[in-house]
Automatic annotation (TrEMBL):
It comes from the Bacteria. It comes from Rhizobium soli. Residues 77-218 form the XdhC Rossmann domain. PANTHER family: ALDEHYDE OXIDOREDUCTASE MOLYBDENUM COFACTOR ASSEMBLY PROTEIN (PTHR30388), MOLYBDENUM COFACTOR INSERTION CHAPERONE PAOD (PTHR30388:SF4). InterPro entries: MoCofactor_Util/Proc (IPR052698), XdhC_Rossmann_dom (IPR027051). This is Xanthine dehydrogenase accessory factor.
Length: 231
């Protein structure tokens, strides 16, 4: 690999952006593609599939055998609200390979006694996100039902292009939330990205089932996400 490409790859890793190397197995030539520059056509489709799955693959294009190796940032879940659903989600997320952080300024809820060694931050999201911003490999789940706590991180998640944005609450609650997000400058198209009520519709009836439905929704969103392409 060329030195410049190696530097770009390391930079992408530090910035939590996806990249892929494409190696021509006959010539040994290696090229680097970022998620933002996936080309159109059969090669672009193969790269996009590899980036969605996270698995290396070989393809034959124009009588050339190409090996595609992907470098993806580890996906993470940021939960807004130290509630019962969060406790269940904190147990499930590591099993699926996700790092998880919980943010809740309510110190009576965000305690070590309730969450053990989970990364729990008892501060306002506005303060946390200045140092730990969202990115496209972050899933955000807002669970407090409190606009003062949920609305800001939901807005930031939409701006950052998080691969999943979900919010707890009924359709009536979400309609009011949508109005507030419009007042914050978001379009209807952006707001439509929010999964609300949160999670896949599996008829969840308790916190553990809602957590399971949410995690399944997150996994589906990661594996089926759109990738930016340019011709």
């Amino acid at each position: 690999m060329k030195f410049d490409d190696l530097a770009r790859l390391n930079g992408a890793r530090q910035e939590r952006r996806a990249s892929a190397t494409i190696t021509d197995l006959a010539s040994g030539e290696i090229s680097l593609v970022s998620e933002e520059t996936v080309p159109e056509g059969p090669l672009g489709a193969a790269i996009a599939d590899a980036m969605r799955s996270g698995k290396a693959t070989s393809v034959e294009i124009d009588n050339r055998i190409l090996f595609i190796n992907v470098y993806l940032p580890p996906p993470r879940i940021v939960v807004i609200g130290a509630v019962h659903i969060s406790q269940a989600l904190a147990r499930l997320a590591p099993v699926a390979g996700y790092d998880l952080t919980i943010i809740d300024p309510r110190t009576a809820f965000a305690t070590e006694e309730r969450f053990g060694d989970v990364d729990v931050i008892a501060e306002w999201p506005e303060d946390v996100l200045r140092e730990r911003p969202f990115d496209s490999y972050t899933a955000v789940a807002a669970l407090t039902h409190d606009p003062k706590i949920d609305d800001f991180p939901l807005s930031q998640a939409l701006k950052a292009g998080c691969f999943y944005v979900g919010a707890l609450g009924s359709r009536k609650t979400h309609a009011k939330r949508a109005d507030r997000l419009k007042d914050m400058g978001h379009s209807e198209e952006e707001i439509a990205r929010i999964s609300a009520p949160i999670g896949l519709d599996i008829g969840a009836a308790n916190p553990a089932e809602i957590a399971l439905a949410t995690l399944a929704d997150i996994v589906r969103s990661l594996r089926r996400r759109d990738l930016l392409t340019q011709g």
